[in-house]
Amino acid sequence: MQHDTARSWRHKDLLDISQLSLEDVLLILDTADYFQEINTRPTKKVPTLKGRSVVLFFAEPSTRTKTSFDVAGKRLSADTFSLAKSGSSLQKGESLKDTALTLQAMRPDAIVIRHEQNGAAEFMANRLECSVINAGDGRHAHPTQALLDAYTLREHWGMMAGKTLCILGDIAHSRVARSNVILLNLMGVNVRLCGPRTLMPYGVETWPVTVYDRVEDAVAGVDAVMCLRLQLERQQAGLLPDLREYAARYCLTAGRLALANAHAQVLHPGPINRGLEIAADVADAPESCILDQVAAGVAVRMALLFLHLTRKG
Amino acid sequence: MADLFIRGATLQGRTVDVLVEGGVVLDVLAHDPARCIEAAQVRDAAGLVLLPSLVDVHVHLREPGLEYKETIATGLTAAAHGGFGRICCMANTKPVNDAGAVTAFMLGQAKKSHPNGPWLHPIGALTMGLKGQDMAPLAELAEAGCVAFSNDGLPVLDSERFRRAMEYAADLGKMVIDHCEDPFLAPGTGVNESALTARMGLKGQPSVGEAAQVARDVLLAGYLKLPVHIAHVSCREAVELIAWAKAKGVDVTAETCPHYLCYTQDAVRGYNTLAKVSPPLRGEDDRLALIQAVNEGVIDFLATDHAPHAMHEKEHPFEEAPNGISWLDTALAKCWELVRAGVIGEERFVMAASTGPGERFGLGVNRFRPGDPADIVLFDPDAVWTVTPEALHSKGKNALCLGETLRGRVVAHYLAGVAVI
Ligand SMILES: [Zn+2]
Fold this sequence. Notes:
The complex is a heterodimer.
Chain A: H1 2-8, H2 22-38, E1 53-58, H3 63-75, E2 79-84, H4 96-105, E3 110-115, H5 120-125, E4 131-137, H6 143-157, E5 164-168, H7 175-186, E6 190-194, E7 210-212, H8 215-219, E8 224-227, H9 243-250, H10 254-257, E9 265-267, H11 280-284, H12 290-309
Parallel strand pairs in A: 1-2, 1-3, 3-4, 5-6, 5-8, 6-7, 8-9
Helix pairs in contact in A: 2-6, 2-12, 3-12, 6-7, 6-12
Chain B: E1 2-11, E2 14-21, E3 24-30, E4 39-44, E5 49-52, E6 54-59, H1 72-82, E7 84-89, H2 100-113, E8 119-125, H3 138-144, E9 148-150, H4 159-171, E10 175-178, H5 195-200, H6 207-224, E11 228-230, H7 236-247, E12 252-256, H8 258-262, H9 284-296, E13 301-302, H10 311-314, H11 331-340, H12 346-360, E14 376-386, E15 405-415, E16 418-419
Parallel strand pairs in B: 1-4, 6-7, 7-8, 8-9, 9-10, 10-11, 11-12, 12-13
Antiparallel strand pairs in B: 1-2, 2-3, 5-14, 14-15, 15-16
Helix pairs in contact in B: 2-3, 4-6, 6-7, 7-9
Bound molecules: zinc ion.
Function (chain A): Catalyzes the condensation of carbamoyl phosphate and aspartate to form carbamoyl aspartate and inorganic phosphate, the committed step in the de novo pyrimidine nucleotide biosynthesis pathway.
InterPro entries (chain A): Asp/Orn_carbamoyltranf_P-bd, Asp/Orn_carbamoylTrfase, Asp/Orn_carbamoylTrfase_sf, Asp_carbamoyltransf, Asp_carbamoyltransf_Asp/Orn-bd
EC number (chain A): 2.1.3.2
């Protein structure tokens, strides 16, 4: 089975959800299912990618995503190498093009890139022969996060189509929201967005979503709520009056969550600001899937490394 | 004996013979195959379009200071091949052209490399260092040879200071050119705020940030009864404000650039840094509004905003790449697509790209009347060429139309009757 799936994977890179078909997504999630099972075994390591090398290039700090990819690679017996922005030549002002050429010369089998520039993953993919996996570029895309969110939801829901999910918070600056909107839409989930207008992207009316400005309306009858981390500097940028007012109006509290369907799931890409975008008791409640998301992250990233590194041609 | 005799060229639909003597047009006659005139130089121009040399009131040459992007010599060579007889260079060099000595240096470089033209006409800084605060020594700059003043690239936000600079420049008989953009509302991100850029995660420049300052400028010009020229108009709102001001009798002129007429924001897809320009490429509705405005004369001139950069600077992630498009080599061929398609009439094109700006800025104007300067382009409308870095004379290979196959090329260019290519 594994060989057949690998043969049918046709993408050199994973840059954005929009490049994937529903079939591709289901293949990733089903492959992740298989690895999730391996992750529950006492010995969590398989030799599948022995001898392959994966470079983790994180130009922007993100311990959790990087660790998740690192664990994923190691469980498949790949060699993982880290290239951080600090301590590398990037600090001395090396351009991304030169970094790409340097990496190319090292002939890795895949590069996982996190970068603060929109389009950085595509920039690298255009210049590298190996697979490039986007681990978040600017405000543009975070496809692996969206896939692990979908994986988590599918575990709880079984069927995705027809369910309703609300993404709550700073949509405008969120690559997580962008990738999730595309992916959940592709899977037949009804997506609602909620947040102050200053944190909504321009032209959001052209997105396949319903936009709400009151949390109470937005979460009414939904099957899941996804909270986004609020960057504290949004206040300095003049997008919000103050964080206290934000919390009062948009924090996902137990009272607000009670308006959703019974057993509605709560997701958060982390790290969370307790009491700001999500109440502490909600983050710790049984409905919270935040730790399931972390576990799913490893399985989904194992699936992605597997599919990209064993693809034929 | 005449200096130059051009036989059988096409001038706005007519086939003509042109006689040049002493650097000026002696006569333009209906073509007669039997006509035989003794001339030092005879040029058979059958099938070629006859145009007056183009006048570009908005280019960036990078000398002094950033010669790796472009020098005055390479810029003028590109101008010669692109059909431009006169180009006005903006002041954002290093150092900024805010002193007569800088202006004199620029003119000296031009004279050294291109004694017979194309001619360089520096535009002086409006404020010291383009900082938008202290007024530059406009009289000194005018005396040194600046033909206008502008803070191009860095708009003057302080309306009081802009007003005073307009007044001071008026005493010198010079025009103020404004780069319209409220930097708070529309920081120079090089991309239009739209659903597309929101999807790409890019911060956009909303068109109202441009229009808001156009509104200020035309209100000031009307109030002071002084002229103003609006640089690189890119959006419908700005067009509507300029039309309104003109209807009120305000002495305003405006320019737009080939990229706003030929492309839309879709060109940034795939994070294409060649399409990164400020003001940014807008939507199709804006493009159509600009074309209509050019045809109706609401937009008076075509200028290129030629902004050469080194390719390694454009080869960055989108937000790190500089704004600007290299145009001098390709603008005529690209705009001719619009003329050929009948989108813009040839007569209107010539007015917008040559005689109009020449007149407004007090430069030489060739209307092909006896005594006009013999600044003449022979353009082969059917010459097909592919835009490659090697095909460009500008050091700036950052042409938006790189890789495109264009139809039309300058095959001869005379300035004051002297061949410059
Ligand atoms: Zn400019």
